[in-house]
Amino acid sequence: MGNSRKIPDGRKKNGDRAAGRIALLTVLILLAFLIAQTMSFSKAARAESPLNPQNTFQDTASPAASGTEVGIGGLMYRLDSGAHKAVLLGNISLEGVITIPEEVNYGGDTYSVTEIAGNAFSDNNAANQKITGFVFEGKKNLLETIGASAFYGRKNYTGALDVPHSVKTIGMEAYRGASFSSLTHKKVAGLQDGISFPSLAGARPELRDEAALREEGYESIVDSSEGNIALRKSAKWTDAHLTEAEILIEYGENEQMVSNLDFIFVMDYSTSMLTPAAATGISDGQPYSYPRSFYMEDLVRDTARAILGDTETKGSNRVGLVAFGGVNGGAHDMGSLLWTTGFTHSLQDIDSALTAHPLIDDNVTDYTAGMKGAAQLIEEREQQAGSEYKNRKTVIFFLSDGMPLPESANGAAEANQLKGMGVEILPIAMYTSQNRYLQALSSSGVVYEAADTAKFEEAVSQALLEAAENAVIANTGLVDVLSEHFVFQTGADTDALVSEGGGSAAVLSDQAVWNLSGCSTGAVHTLTLKVRLADGTEMDKSGVLPTNKSLGAAGGIVTDAQPELERYLVNYRFINGDDPQAQLPEEVMSLLPPTEGGCRDGASVSPQAVAEKQVAAENGEVWVFGGWDQDEVTIDKGNVLYTGKWTRPQLSFEFIKVDGSSGGTPLGGAGFTLYECRFKKDPGHTHTELATGDASGCWQEKLTDVSDADTGSVRFDSLDAGQYLLAETKAAEGYMLPHGQWLVTAEADGTFAIEGKGNSLPPAFALTSDDQGRTVYKLPNYKKGDVPLTGGFGAVLFTAAGIIVIGLAAAQLIMARRK
């Protein structure tokens, strides 16, 4: 066998064992080296990966195994290579407002970001300190889950959080303690289809077409319909002089339609409302798990929409919000009131308030604060002076998911006070069974239970229907009050006529009381009132006259707008045309036409004729009417005033002194005095025949003049119509002063009547015309020795008398000779 040695069996076995140990150790060393290299590569890739605009990571690594955690774009993800989904685990290095992507790329594969892990951005990670807000990419709607406490406790998150509508699950306290300024989410819960106030009983009774009223002559129509009340008042004149009128009141109501109500949602914002609850989406039927507060906000929005009606139209109902919470162990009063809104008609106001006040803080259930918040809204409403919303029926929906903490914060005292004021309180127990504290708040003792989201929706619907049923406003008695311009025509009940089936009416002083008890709803009833202008005001009342002061009812309806009838007057006045501020004599004013009325707007009117156009006053003054300032006038929303002018005519008496023997040669130098009667204001006075110059006569000197040397003209100006006495006081040189005087009567039209006066009559005035056809008065005079001195016809008579005397003397002489 040569040099071969036989090894004992025991030693051979020991050698085999040693070789095995060496081989195993070698394998372990190689495995440790490979693991170290892999970890080193992972850290290098995580540290060196750049953030591109799409938040995707480009590398040449092999596809990741399921469960691999990698850093991409400054964020950490856990990848599921089989499903190609990624869970966002948290922040690595990003600051400010960050964008959460819908997809990331790694190892050549695309992963959908479907979940934000629990605590991903909570205060447990120091890397989140410099983040201020989040923006979600929203093109593909891939995010489905936000984990518990995902944003927990971070006060530096101050922006809006708009949860993508693709999210179906939100974990416990996902954003509790953060400081988001607002929070929006998909609507999941809502009212049952068809639940809305307008649909509870249909529309209010329909009034007939307004055109039909116009055809019946109604001139003013005021429609005050609102909510479930149909109310219209119309008025028209019924006589030619617009002194009697008719008022038509049309009224109907639908008792089951709710209107003119104020609703308050008192909402529990305690921490338990952050607890997720299961729900089926109202629009898509998909399963959801959202915080309870989300469902409460959805239902408040829907209920507000049902109450307020069409968002484009301002309705009669209003809604206010109250959110309450509290600090455990703190004072449970108004300090626990988180926020309130005023009453509003606007759905946008409600939505904005809910969005801007997300439930994120630690709070306890404080009923007292909630009830005090509701009382505060009502008190503020009542303190608004002259508010149309005073004493409104108020309904409170009290929403809570737990019992008061502590027990003393149960709000019972505040609720009893509100119920004593007529406020209706409807508690809804959310995600719990009713408790005795909620029952104590209820107006009826009923608590609407909502053990889950579906029951929650049903409970709100039932409470809404109860509010509609119990808040009926039925006006069985209406009182219409006339304005100060009108009274009832006879003052008897016959002045108030109701339609068939329209109840009864009575007239009481200036009111008509309409009793509608037993009248059918859903129909329009009418009341017709016969009225007239108050006695003695027919020629005073003009312009736009309201027919009524108000119409009210025990149910609270009060109308301020009233029908208005128009009537206008035609007035007259006289003024002194010479001095508008001076008074006219009574004889003139007695001719003033009376006021005419009433006239409709647009009517054509003409002035009345004056009975006399020339009047002699008691004082002797003569006044002449100069006419009205305008003729036919069309009334244009105002009274008409005609102004007539009266004047005292200022006349001029002018004549020419002429030589009666030489064919009318003008004589200058003749003096004249014009006298007026000192008793002219005495209508019973009789003039003395001649002016004697002493106080025994009535004539007193007024004016003097001397005939012009060239023209012989004598002129007296500024004469009133009336009688004067003219005397020639100085004859022209070489001429004889005539006997007698002249009574001159000045007429208002400028003509003069002249009559000689005295035992020996003066020469008569001769009337001629000038080239323009105007009358010219001429007064002749005669030289000394000329006969006759009486002039004109006097000279002829004197000559004839002389001839007769001579003839008689001759006849006497002849007869004497015959004897």
Automatic annotation (TrEMBL):
It comes from the Bacteria. Residues 262-464 form the VWFA domain. Pfam families: SHIRT, SpaA, VWA. The chain crosses the membrane at residues 793-815. InterPro entries: Ig-like_fold, LRR_dom_sf, SHIRT, SpaA_PFL_dom_1, VWF_A, vWFA_dom_sf. Keywords: Membrane, Transmembrane, Transmembrane helix. This is VWA domain-containing protein. It comes from Eubacterium maltosivorans.
